[in-house]
Amino acid sequence: MKKIIIITGANRGLGKALVDIALKDEDAIIVSFSRSLHNEHNHISKTKLIFIKTDLSESFSASIFEIIDKKLASNATLYFFNNASIILPIDKIGRFKEMDIEMSIKVNVQYPVNLINSLLNKFPNNKIILVNISSGAGNNPIPFWSLYGAAKAYMKLFFRTLEEENKDNNKIKLYSIDPGVLDTGMQENIRDNAFPNQDYFRSLKEDNKLIKPEDAALKIFLEINYYI
């Protein structure tokens, strides 16, 4: 195959929408790093959509790439979408439980950093496109969103540093893309948890101002110059 597209959190929301678009490309294999496979994807051939059961809150293992290594030709392009993230816990600093802090850091920072580090180490001869799904929460402080916002800021700077380190390497291309406020399960979490700006986010839903995941996914593919 000419392209292998790896997506974390591919079983719902934006991740699922990214998979739906990628499936239209006959020259691509899609790899889902998720806890489960979306029901709509159960009928897809396992040679087209490879599901690797993955819990980002657990320890990272480079063995996750074994099946990709077997299918990856030397001239193939690897795409990685760092999509999966959690916003919970939404709370004031000083009230977090240690296990909640640990979970947030593992899912939002530790696992994706390990994954990207291993990806670059194992496939140095392939062209690699890395796409970080960013958020405005990583630019400005939002009360009660400290863990999520700090993680998004971390990944944004991590990608900027990675880009600087590879500015003379034409095999690596990086993007950090903020898709906007999406109509996903994360927004349900936001509306269900009390914090100072909660009314604003509730109004986005009530006024139909949330972005559909499929629209955001299409825009992302266009932004990285991926045309099907």
UniProtKB/TrEMBL annotation:
Chief localization: cytoplasm
GO BP field: tetrahydrobiopterin biosynthetic process
Single annotated GO MF: sepiapterin reductase (NADP+) activity
GO cellular component assignments: cytoplasm
SUPFAM superfamilies, per database record: NAD(P)-binding Rossmann-fold domains (SSF51735)
Localization of this protein: Cytoplasm
Keywords (A to Z) from UniProt: Cytoplasm, NADP, Oxidoreductase
Cross-referenced PANTHER family: SEPIAPTERIN REDUCTASE (PTHR44085)
Annotated protein name in UniProt: Benzil reductase ((S)-benzoin forming)
Organism whose genome encodes this protein: Flavobacterium fluvii
Classification lineage: Bacteria, Pseudomonadati, Bacteroidota, Flavobacteriia, Flavobacteriales
